């Protein structure tokens, strides 16, 4: 869990993903299209990916990918991110975290 906390605080936007997950691809594409440069951890490619996935589940993340943290705070998965984007709350949140300068 301590390793997970360090990863979450590493950058203003952190995405936990899997290459095999289509929703992970959608979320990564959204952030990149917005001009955000997130740290992306592909849990199916990194060492201890299963351990990190288990720690995300302990935080209440279900499903465990994609999971997005902005400014060190859990935003949630694809549904939560897309809801924020559609109600125009995502960009202000990214600006407050210093991840976007529009």
Structural class: alpha+beta
Mean pLDDT: 94
Helix content: 40-55%
The strand order across the widest sheet is: 2-1-3-4
Q: How many extended strands?
A: 4
Verbal overview:
The chain has 102 residues and is α+β, with helices and mostly antiparallel strands. Helix content is 44%, strand content 17%. The chain has five helices and four strands, in the order H-E-H-E-H-E-E-H-H. It has helices spanning 2-8, 22-33, 49-58, 78-86, 90-96; strands at residues 13-17, 39-42, 67-70, 73-76. The protein has a four-stranded mixed sheet, with helices on both faces. It is globular, with a radius of gyration of 13 Å. It starts with a helix and ends in a 6-residue tail after the last helix.
What structural keywords apply?
102 residues; alpha+beta; four-stranded mixed sheet; 5 helices; 4 strands; globular; cytoplasm; Glutaredoxin domain-containing protein; Glutaredoxin_subgr; Glutaredoxin; Thioredoxin-like_sf
């Amino acid at each position: 869990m301590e390793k997970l906390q360090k990863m979450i605080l590493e950058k203003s936007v952190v995405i936990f993903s899997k290459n095999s997950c289509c929703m992970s691809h959608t979320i990564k594409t959204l952030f990149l299209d917005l001009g955000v440069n997130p740290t992306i951890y592909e849990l199916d490619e990194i060492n201890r990916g299963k351990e990190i996935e288990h720690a995300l589940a302990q935080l209440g993340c279900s499903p465990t990918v994609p999971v997005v943290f902005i400014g060190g705070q859990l935003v949630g998965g694809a549904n939560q991110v897309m809801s924020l984007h559609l109600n125009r709350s995502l960009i202000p949140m990214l600006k407050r975290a210093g991840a976007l300068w529009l």
